[in-house]
Structure formats: structure tokens, C-alpha cells
Amino acid sequence: MIYQRHIPREELLSAQLELLMQHGRVATISANLVGVIAVIGLFWPFSYLPYLLLWGAAVLIMLLLRSLFMSNALVERSFNSSPKAVYWQLVIGSALTGLVWSSAYVYSALNLPVTIQYVMLLLIVLITAISLAVTVTIREHFLAYLFTALWPIAWWSLVHYRDEPYNLTIGLVLLVVCALLMMVSNWIYRSFRNMIALNWEREAMSRELGDLTNSLRDRNRQLQDARRQLTDLANIDELTGLGNRRLVNKVLQEEINRARRAGSELSLILIDVDYFKNYNDSLGHSAGDTVLQELSDLMQRATSRAGEVVARYGGEEFIIISPNSSPAAAMRTASRLQSLVLDERIPHPNSEVSDYITISQGVVTVTPDGELQPGELINRADEALYEAKGAGRNTISVG
Ligand SMILES: Nc1nc2c(ncn2[C@@H]2O[C@H](COP(=O)(O)OP(=O)(O)OP(=O)(O)O)[C@@H](O)[C@H]2O)c(=O)[nH]1
């Protein structure tokens, strides 16, 4: 489920701070640096040089500290851990820079030719415009600058309207400019904030989508496992743990196809317990079950060739599918199984052939042609088994 989320205030502030420092750092510092150089150039002929240089050095140190602070905050990502602290330091830095420019203007108005005063005003307006463009992601950062740079100049000009003919105009125009800039900064700031919030929401949603995709992938894997387990269960005989008739049909078809392609031999051994009905009747059905389980273990021990499959074909009938197996090899497997069963000496109280459990086996080997079907192969093995039964049981007959 995807929810419409709204960016938490702290995260919004962190994102704004990062944007401001990434994009505003170089531009703000460069604009102020150019301003300092311009002031030194303009004031040079009219001021006491050591004081001017001292002022320039102080402002440069402040700019350098501001730049270092921003670089540091970006590297250590302190705007994430303590955004409020970074916010206030940036706002204070901005206010201090504004004060530098308003005081420089007042100084020029009081001590320097009027042309220099106007050039200063132009310079400060330019720096303010640059500041607006690059630092407005934090509105207060820009407003702190505006109210310490242009705002004091406006009021100073109005108060000293008699000193210069244009002071009144400058004061009034600057008040209007300040009001306009406040409106514009508010408008740009809102756009930025929406952009950041939208971006955050998009990232949050894509993160959630990623989580959803992962959990869907997990569920899919679980379903596939469950399906595989179900298929396995459907192919397994519950009593003996061997493959069942369903598996025999599937494997036999596959092995016939493979042997047909490879032109190789395929052997089948059909096994039946002798006088098993009598055994059940004498010792009970559950004793019969135990015998079937013991025999299935022996069959697995008797098979050793790669790809051989032992399965319970039904009732007390078992089957061994032996790929790439010659008649001689199949006969060896059947003989080994017969010996193992006899060696086990499982008492049979009512067998006409032995005092112990015995089995009869029908063996058939084919090199499948284009026509051979699994059923035909089973029938041939069944006929051989029938022969073995007819020959007195506890025997192996080859079909
Ligand atoms: N205990 C037990 N008996 C089973 C199971 N499945 C089939 N049988 C029994 O196996 C016996 C098979 O008997 P028949 O097919 O008459 O053959 P037989 O008595 O073994 O005689 P021959 O095969 O001719 O030697 C039946 O009594 C079935 O009830 C099983 O899962 N457990």
C-alpha cells in the first residue's frame, strides 16, 4: 500500500539548507568578494589606506569563515543532524554581511563624493539581486540580508533627505524595492519548498515501491517453493518414500525419449513380492507395510548406477528404471536385489516357496525406436514377471 506522505519539517529544512549551501556558497562568496575589491578600488583615493585595508581584511576573513562553515557543514552533513544550528549560523552570517554593505554605503554617503555613493548603491543592489537568486531556498537567509543591507540604507536616506537632492528618492525607491523583494522572495521560496517536498515525496514513494517489489519477489519465491514441494509430494509414495506410479510414468517417458535420441539402451525391472496376500493374512496388514518398507530400502541398496530410479508401481509391485543399462547390467541389479532380499531372511509363515520373504522379477531391456510407449515397456516387463511367477517364484525372468 502506498501512502501519500508529506515531508517532515526537519527533513524539509535539511534539504533547503543543503540546496542553499551547494548552490549559494560559491556565488554568494564571489559576489561579496568582488564587492570588497570594488570598495577598496573606489575608496582608495579618499580614505586612509591602512584602515581601508584593515576593513577589507576583516570582511575577507568573515567571508572566508562563512565559506569554511558551509563546506564543513556539507562534508559532515551537519545540516541533517542539527539543521536548526546550521540555519541560525547561516542567517547570522547573512545579516553580518548585510551590515557590512549598509555601513559601507553610509560611510561613502558621509565622506565620499556623491558619485561614489551612487556606485556603492548600485553595487549593493547587484549583490542583493545575486543573493536573492542563490540563497532564497532559506527565505530568512535572504530577508536577514535585505533588512541589514538595503532596509537601513532606505531609512538612512529618508532621514538624511536634505543632505543630497536624490536621498529622498533613493529612500522611497529602496522601500518599494524592499517590499517587492520580500514578495518576490516569498514567491520563489514557496516554489523551491514545493519542489523539494515533491522531490522528497517522489523518493519516498520510489523507496516504498522498491520495498514492495522486494517483498513481492520474496512472496513469489515462497509460492514457487510451495508449488515445488506440492509437486514433490504428489510424486512420492507415502508408505515407502519412493517415487509413485505418477513419477514412474513421467520418468519413463523422459528416459525413453532420451534413450531414443542417444540410441542407448534402457532397462526396466518389475518386482513383485511372492505370496504377499498370505503374509498379510497371517501377520496383519501393518506387518505387511513394514515388509514393504524394508524391501524398498533393499531396492535402493541394490541400485548403484547413475540415473537409476526406484519406485513403487502399486500395491506390492515395485519398479527399477535403469537408463544406459545393458541386459547383463540389468540382470546383475536384479540378482543383487534377490540376494539382498534372501540375506535379509524376513520370516514368511505362509509362503509356498520359502520360509522367508522372496520376490519375483521381470527384466526387460530396449533400445527405443520411434514408436515405443511407456505402457508397452511396462507390459513387456509385466509379461516377464508373470513368467517368473509361473516358473515357481523367487526367480528372475528376462522379457
Ligand atoms: N500391507 C499391505 N499390503 C498391501 C498393500 N498394497 C497391496 N497389498 C496387498 O498385497 C496383496 C497382493 O496379493 P496378490 O496380488 O493376490 O498376490 P500375492 O499374494 O502376492 O501372490 P503372488 O503375487 O501371486 O505371489 C494383497 O493382499 C493386497 O492387499 C499395502 O500397501 N500394504
UniProtKB/TrEMBL annotation:
Transmembrane residue ranges: 26-46, 52-75, 87-110, 116-135, 142-158, 170-189
GO molecular function: diguanylate cyclase activity
SMART domains: GGDEF
InterPro entries cross-referenced by the UniProt entry: Diguanylate_Cyclase, GGDEF_dom, Nucleotide_cyclase, Rev_trsase/Diguanyl_cyclase
Domain GGDEF residues, every copy: 264-399
Required cofactor(s): Mg(2+)
Catalytic activity: 2 GTP = 3',3'-c-di-GMP + 2 diphosphate
GO CC term, one of those recorded: plasma membrane
Keyword annotations of the record: Coiled coil, Membrane, Transmembrane, Transmembrane helix
GO biological process: cell adhesion involved in single-species biofilm formation; negative regulation of bacterial-type flagellum-dependent cell motility
This enzyme's EC code(s): 2.7.7.65
Parts forming coiled coils: 209-236
Record-linked NCBIfam families: GGDEF
Protein name: diguanylate cyclase
Source organism of this protein record: Parahalioglobus pacificus
